[in-house]
Amino acid sequence: ARSVILDMDPGIDDAAAIAVALNNPGLDVKLITTVAGNVSVDKTTVNALKLVNFFNKNVPVARGAAAPLKKRFEDAGAIHGESGLPGYDFPEPKSQISKLTAIDAIAHALTQSEKQLTLIATGAYTNIAQFILQYPELLSKIDELILMGGSISGGNATSVAEFNVFTDPDAAKIVFESGLNITMIGLDVTLKALISKQTSDRLAEFGEAGRMLHGIINAYGDVHEGGKPMHDVITVLYALHPEVIKLQKEHIDAVTDGPAIGATVADVLHRWYEKNDYNAEVGVDIDAAFFNDWFLKQVSRMSNR
Ligand code: BDR
Ligand code: CA
Predict the structure, then answer these.
(1) What residue stretches are annotated with the Inosine/uridine-preferring nucleoside hydrolase domain (predicted)?
(2) What Å distances lie between residue 74 and 68, 166, 277, 305, CA to CA?
């Protein structure tokens, strides 16, 4: 199995990504760290614990940053509900939040592991940026950083900025300049793989986990023509099956001020950077029908016992 650390802001699509990652035998989730994003970090942390508890897994949850590095924090409660996890009545979690901070917990997990780990980040990159600054000696223990976020074709938070990068653009800049092996799963690909109403209606057929996902996805306010984007789930799909997403090598610059704040600019025409001077592989295409089938299959195999 591929060993992963999930850094997230659950959040409905984050919750679905956690559900898949905790239940697919191809992944070994070592740690979940939380960050302020869709809702406050207190709420994203409780939501992560609720999911770990729901699936009866023994995965530590460590709380991360409560606010972006510099920018004022703005949540997305309008899309993910006030709690960040509406639509299902979870029991109060039994397990405790880790005593370590998110960045110390990431450092601990990397130090403990003999092999390299994969980092999957589906919230603002505040924790990841702080980790990069505080533990540069541990970066070689990360084989790949898979990001949900950014876009090279228009935004969702503003006309040019995707929400995770928009939430903490200064963190995104540090991340893209870190030299880590980055795969950027942004809106270019997540908006091409909407979960159709037909698929989400069927989720309720699959036991308690299916009913939970059916409930939260029903309550999810990110509605597009043709369905709802399960942005964060695509990072988990990619970690398991990289071949199903078409990638393009780009040099990405995160814009940290002005009207384009939060944009991820790709130098597609190589006017600024040499062609081989790329810092990310950017997802640009995916088969939506495949994604829908795959997601249903994941949910049909989930067990919350
Ligand atoms: C991203 O923003 C969040 O609201 C979602 O959870 C996803 O990570 C999409 O832009
Ligand atoms: Ca998210």
Answers:
(1) 4-292
(2) 9, 10, 34, 36
Cβ–Cβ under 8 Å, residues 282 and 266: yes
11 lines ligand 1 (CB under 6 A): yes
241 belongs to the catalytic site? no
- Tokens 């990001």 identify what position? 147
Element spanning 145, H or E: strand 142-148
CB 234 within 8 A of CB 190: yes
Q: Could you report the predicted ipTM of this complex, rounded to two decimals? A: 0.99
- The values of phi and psi at residue 189, to 5°, are -105, -35
Q: Which of 231, 241, 251, 270 is catalytic?
A: 231
Roughly how many angstroms between the first and final C-alpha of the chain, as a whole number? 21
Give the amino acid at 216.
I
HSE value, Cβ hemisphere, 13 Å, CA-based, for 290: 11
User: Does ligand 1 lie within 6 Å of residue 199's CB atom?
Assistant: no
Q: Assess whether the previous peptide bond of 11 is cis (omega < 30° from 0).
A: yes
What is the pTM (predicted TM-score) of this model?
0.98
Both structure tokens of 299:
């949910």
For residues 100 and 104, give the distance between their C-alpha atoms in angstroms, rounded to a whole number.
6
Please work out whether the CB of residue 228 comes within 6 Å of at least one atom of ligand 1: no
H/E stretch holding 34: strand 27-34
Alpha helices in the chain (DSSP H): 12-23, 41-54, 77-80, 102-112, 126-134, 163-167, 169-176, 187-190, 197-202, 207-218, 231-240, 288-300
Of residues 147, 135, 201, the one with CA closest to residue 173: 147
Angle, in degrees to the nearest 10, between helices 288-300 and 231-240: 80
Average pLDDT, consecutive stretches of 10 residues, N- to C-terminus, the chain (305 residues):
98 98 98 98 98 97 98 95 97 93 98 98 99 98 98 98 98 98 98 97 96 97 96 98 98 98 97 97 98 98 81
